[in-house]
Design brief:
The protein has no helices and 10 strands. The protein has 112 residues and is mainly beta. It has one domain. Strand 7 and strand 8 form a beta hairpin.
Amino acid sequence: MSTQILRPNGVGAETNIAGQYPTSGEHWDKVDEATPDDSATYVRHNLTSFAIDTYALPAGGGVGDIDKVTVYARCYGISGNYNYAKTVIRTHSTVYEGTEHNLISGWEDLST
């Protein structure tokens, strides 16, 4: 079984996360790095409800069936704040949400 890593390369169907740093460019170019740059680029949502961003991905180069999709995210929590995150996969107009994670404090790597 081969593995392909697909990184965001464009805007997806939803852009609902309120903020980004830096303010130039698009949300997807803040989350496409192979090595995390942490506070250098990020998307940010400060409300007490979830907001969804989806991102376009390049076409996979594989042949055959897809057996598994894993989404990885690097998230930051601030102690005492509403700090929850979850991953989302959107395919064929259907959104699949991952497990809600309570971010305690600092950077955390999530996967679903």
